[in-house]
Amino acid sequence: MPQMQVETLIIGAGAAGMMCAAHAGPGVVLVDHAKAPGEKIRISGGGRCNFTNLHTGPENFISQNKHFAKSALGRYTQWDFIDLVDRHQIPWHEKTLGQLFCDTSAKDIIAMLRAEMGRAGAALWLQTQVGQISHDGYRFHVQLTRDGRDIAVTPRNLVVASGGKSIPKMGATGLGYQIAAQFGLPVIAPRPGLVPLTFGDDRFKPLAGVATPARVTAGGTSFDEAILFTHRGLSGPAVLQASSYWAEGTPIIVNLSPDADLLKALQHQRQSDGRKALTTVLGQYLPSRLVDHLGGELSLSGNTADQSDAALQAICNRLGAWVLRPSGSEGYRTAEVTLGGVDTAALSSKTMRAKAVPGLYFIGECVDVTGWLGGYNFQWAWSSGWAAGRAIKAP
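Now predict its structure.
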């Protein structure tokens, strides 16, 4: 079996792995089982890659250690990545809530990262399978299979950037967790994040395709964005965000009028046009199909003039705190990220290196740091990849 000694082997040619390869110095080999690098970058943001968020801060991330991400995010910020994008003359624009997207294609970001890797002299091996891994106290021994040939690679540094379990159709696996367990690092149980929630009774099937602004609360955390009713349950940005805080068996609370004083509006309508049906009036503030669906549940019958203040208050209370109990989620199949991962207690927040294993690093999604929807997870990939790369290059 051919043998090859390298300085650094990086497993996973996604956002974090490519970023690390561009900064880790000479002697870097980046490997991936896929046919092309950056596949999750390519499909993200509708093909335009929501590559960061202007408002990125530690408060936008979920982890058992809420302070862990501060170091990497503070030393390589969203502004640093925007500067890199600008230097490569990639046009971009801001959407809502500080989300930044490419004007043309997500492929521009992949090309930029490949160019940065090329400038740094990093090698990229695609369609390469990772086999046995061991460590002799000085170097790692990694068996790779490339083009049908087995190659024994002995790197001084091993960086695990293999991602989580989300979107398995793109080849996502739990390899990073397996490597962590092999070397004695604890792993916080992974679960799907930023994922649609399901209801086993098909209750929302008639509403499939209906969207409306709402405030969704799960686990004490609330998000104000759109919700989308689907054949299986609820989706949309507010639900995806809340799903990362939702625990199985617990309810979510949906406020269907987060920005309006609905009670005052209904009282005004009662005075000015009380002969209109209550459902017709509510249809001015909520999608009519949703009002029809809620009609029986909330007793939305009669004209507006027939409703007392107490009756209108009761209706508004229910619309402002609609308690729903999901039966589950759509799982890793549609989850945008994986919650949990390699326990940050076992890693250095400055370098991303395993405290107990010299030369072993974990970055990106496989670590127990998960961002909100809106470019935050890409920023974590850039920041953690940069932190590990700079630490490797420094000696």
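The radius of gyration is 25 Å.
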